[in-house]
Model the fold of this input.
Amino acid sequence: MNKPVVLVAEELSEAGLAVLGADFDVRHVDGADRAQFLPALAGVDALIVRSATQVDAEAIAAAPKLRVVARAGVGLDNVDVEAATKAGVMVVNAPTSNITSAAEHTVALILASARNVAQAHSALKGGEWKRSKYTGVELDEKVVAILGLGKIGQLVAQRLQPFGVELIAYDPYLQPARAAQMGVRLVSLEEALAEADFITVHLPKSKETIGLIGDKELRAVKPTVRLINVARGGIIDENALYSAIKEGRVAGAGIDVFPKEPVTDSPLFELDQVVVTPHLGASTHEAQEKAGTQVARSVKLALAGEFVPDAVNVQGGAVAEDVKPGLPLAEKLGRVFTALAGEVATRLDVEVRGEIAAHDVRVLELAALKGVFADVVEDSVTYVNAPLLAKDRGVTVELVTSPESPDWRNVVTVRGVLADGRTVSVSGTLSGPRQITKIVEVNGYQMEIEPTDHLSFFAYSDRPGVVGIVGRILGDHGINIASMQVSRDVKGGKALIALTVDTAIPADVVDQIAGEIGADSGRSVDLAD
Ligand SMILES: NC(=O)c1ccc[n+]([C@@H]2O[C@H](COP(=O)([O-])OP(=O)(O)OC[C@H]3O[C@@H](n4cnc5c(N)ncnc54)[C@H](O)[C@@H]3O)[C@@H](O)[C@H]2O)c1
Ligand SMILES: O=C(O)[C@H](O)COP(=O)(O)O
Done:
């Protein structure tokens, strides 16, 4: 059997490659070289990148088999997550892999900028012993403004605390009490600019943050201020920063990231007051080992069809062990639902009852939706695009949970209302230590059948002789019945036959049975693939 193809488009740690092991066809390409990268995507199941590879809509379209894009690091601004989601491609990152390295690099640049380390180093190695020119400033008693008090911003705050600085931060999405616990005073952007001796940026790059620190803002700072950016290029406007330093309105800067990378001709490079590094924030052995192993594990999970905790475009969090067996059950129920309904519902309820409802079971709703659309759309349906498919078709979906359940069993129900107002439902359980899955209800009829590869359901009016007719027709076509159950509401009322058979029942045979027994409906579903 062909191994799944994993394309590694940037350097991945040895430890990450070791996690992938021999089960995958691991290929390498230079993701920054578009002419090589795009053709290499054909036939690829998983793609691993860092920040230099643009995974845009064009790249995603060039990879029709792609199931997961893994970013061995934090920032996702080089990945078009929306395009990936539409294509059903999971996007994962390694959200905490390099935050310590990025925070330490920030502190390195703050100190380097305060004490002119890089400039003095170059001068001395160039044969110049200059002391007064490189007189610096202390951090003690200075005000440090952190823009973005998230994971890295917080680590920077912790690390700067012992230097005796006063910490302020601009982050409108954080509670002041949480910041206060860290010894940080939350302020407005205007206050941060006016009060700071050092400003360090730890924001994501977004529509709101691009150019957040531009000409106007750099006219509102102290002339002694130093700016540090280990987040993303473009959050501080480079040209505005250049002018501010050149005109003596800003004392200096420490910059790790640039609007376009790689870059060797930024205007900032000509200024002695600016210390620069080529996007080295995450470039430590430790961070790369963590990023590589974390994404390799996520790729393995994603290609095994399992839920991935670090997926950024899938709703729901980590899946509890007790909930995991419910995933294939909910997906099968979704497929049976669609077979029974014969059309897309206008409204769908996914009900989860029993002890598992104590966990986060949003993933069961996704699994049910995955099943509902699996036999409806041409493209592959995943945990990622299933909610979008529902939304596109105007299906309202609701998850209903309850710890109460009959017989103490965990029960999952997919219930939908069709355009003509009819309700269709199917329920399944997980029972026993082996978590055996059973279908226990169809359209209100109680039963107990295994969701095997081939199922059929016939709704008809209760009367003698029907079972015999069904058996004869299937026998005539060489189809072996594995199990058959008849349920009815009242004697002589409406009844339902549920069948499991060894081979698929062709559509014309389903029609023949339905015709001969005068069924209200006859449906079959193949869960084999
Ligand atoms: N240089 C490197 O090598 C390197 C390494 C890792 C991360 N990064 C970058 O560092 C940055 C921070 O990463 P993180 O993991 O700390 O992210 P994070 O999401 O944990 O933190 C970002 C913080 O910014 C705040 N924020 C978001 N939008 C804002 C806005 N418009 N105004 C003010 N605050 C806003 C959020 O509330 C959050 O607290 C990202 O840009 C990431 O890509 C760079
Ligand atoms: O967002 C990140 O994780 C950092 O910017 C690191 O990027 P890199 O993996 O390309 O070094």
